[in-house]
Amino acid sequence: MRHHEQKEALFARLAAEFINTESNRQSLITITRGQLSDDERRADLFFTVLPESKEEEVTIFLTRNRAPFRDYVKKHSENLRVLPTFDFKLDVGEKNRLDLEALSS
After folding, report:
1. pLDDT for 31 beyond 90
2. What backbone phi and psi angles, to 5 degrees, belong to 5?
3. Distance separating alpha carbons of residues 48 and 92, to the nearest angstrom
4. Which of 22, 24, 27, 48 could bond to 54 as cystine, CB 3.0-4.6 Å?
5. What SS3 state is found at 56?
6. With a threshold of 0.90, does the pTM exceed it?
7. Beta strands at 28-36 and 85-90: parallel, antiparallel or unpaired
8. Are 31 and 17 in contact (CB under 8 A)?
9. Angle CA(62)–CA(80)–CA(24) in degrees, nearest 5?
10. Could you tell me which residues are beta bridge partners of residue 28?
11. Looking at residue 96, what is its pLDDT?
């Protein structure tokens, strides 16, 4: 696994841990993947939400907690030369895949 991909996996795992400790658990939030820019200065963390009616509420929660998450990453990771700016994005591709899977069943 490339170093770049290892960082993406690390950030996704840390996001899942952070959400597990900080969310109100009124919805199921799943980090589906991390995507790091080529210069490693930006990282997008993609998520899904169940029930879907909580998507907007969760998006607001995650956006509001970007700075505390960045501090969490700084505290729980070692040897990072550059700590990226994080953004959380709803994983529309995964949502569409699940919808297609449900239709084909």
Report:
1. yes
2. -70, -35
3. 8
4. 27
5. helix
6. no
7. unpaired
8. no
9. 20
10. 50
11. 62
